[in-house]
Amino acid sequence: MNRRMLIPAVLAMLVLSGCADIKKLEDLEVNSIRLENVTPHGLRSLGVTLVVEVDNPGAEVSLSEISGQLEHSGKVLGNVAVDPFTLQGKKTDVYHLQADLSLGEGATVLDLGRLLDKKVMDEALVDVSAKVRIRKGPARKMGINDMPLKKLIDAVK
Predict the structure, then answer these.
(1) Choosing a second label site near 51 at 20 to 30 A (CA), which of 1, 16, 84, 97?
(2) Distance between CA 39 and CA 37 in Å, rounded?
(3) Using CA atoms, how far apart are residues 92 and 57, in angstroms rounded to an integer?
(4) How much is the average pLDDT of 83-101?
(5) Which domains does the chain have, with CATH numbers?
(6) 3-class DSSP state for residue 138?
(7) pLDDT (tens digit, 9 = 90+) per residue, 57-87?
(8) Over 70: is that where the pLDDT of 23 sits?
(9) Which residues are paired to 96 by β-bridges?
(10) What phi-psi label fits residue 53: left (phi over 0), alpha (psi between -120 and 50 degrees) or beta?
(11) According to DSSP H, which parts of the chain are helical?
(12) Average pLDDT for residues 96-123, to the nearest whole number?
C-alpha cells in the first residue's frame, strides 16, 4: 500500500464509517505527510516512519490494531500494519508513526508498479481496519472492505 496513504486511509475509514460519534471527526485534516525513515526488512518488507501533521478539532481519538490490505484481481499485493497512536483532541499536532509494509504472498514489486496504470488503480481494492476509541469510551473495531483504491485516494485529497 502506498506509504503516503497510511494515515489518510485510516482517517477516511473513520469519516466514512457512519457511527454518530465518529461523524464528529469529519473535520479531521491531514495537513502534511512526510517520509522520515525507511528500513528494509529483507526483500519483501519495509519498516517506515512517517511524520504526519493532523488537525483534530474534536475529541481525543486512539487508534490501535491498524491494518490494511491492497488487492487486485483477487491477489493480495500488499499489507500494512501501523503501530497504535492517539490523536490529541482540539489541537494540531505532529505525529511520528511507525508502520510495516510487506508484499502479499506471491506479489512482486512489479505488481505494485502496475498501480500507476489508471485502469489497474480503478480496479484495485483496499481493506482497512482499526480499533477506535474516542476519549475514554469503549474501543470499537471498525473497517472498510473492498473500497476502490481510487475512491480512497479521492476521499483523502
Answers:
(1) 16
(2) 7
(3) 8
(4) 95
(5) 3-155 (2.60.40)
(6) coil
(7) 988 999 999 999 999 999 999 999 999 999 9
(8) no
(9) 51
(10) beta
(11) 6-16, 20-23, 109-113, 118-123, 149-155
(12) 90
